[in-house]
Amino acid sequence: MSALADTFGCRSGCGACCIAPSISSPIPGMSGGKPAGIPCVQLLPDMRCALFGKPERPAVCVSLRPSQEMCGGSRDEALRHLAALELATRPAG
What is the top-level taxon of the source organism (predicted)? Predict the structure, then answer.
């Protein structure tokens, strides 16, 4: 991992990773997971996760780490990149 990846942190007011991807595992308040493009019910008005640092936070969310590649230079770039990844990894059918 590069030094940049080690020091890159979440962008204040972003929340792109809580909106763009689908999440198939249960989330408190969303027992069937979360569809792509829909904000997670745990996303607070200031775009922070209400479950951050809590044991209820899904493992997939814990494993998602901010990076320059994923987050880009803005919230809009992050949303576009994550939406493209969602499309590229969607099961056929």
Answer: Bacteria
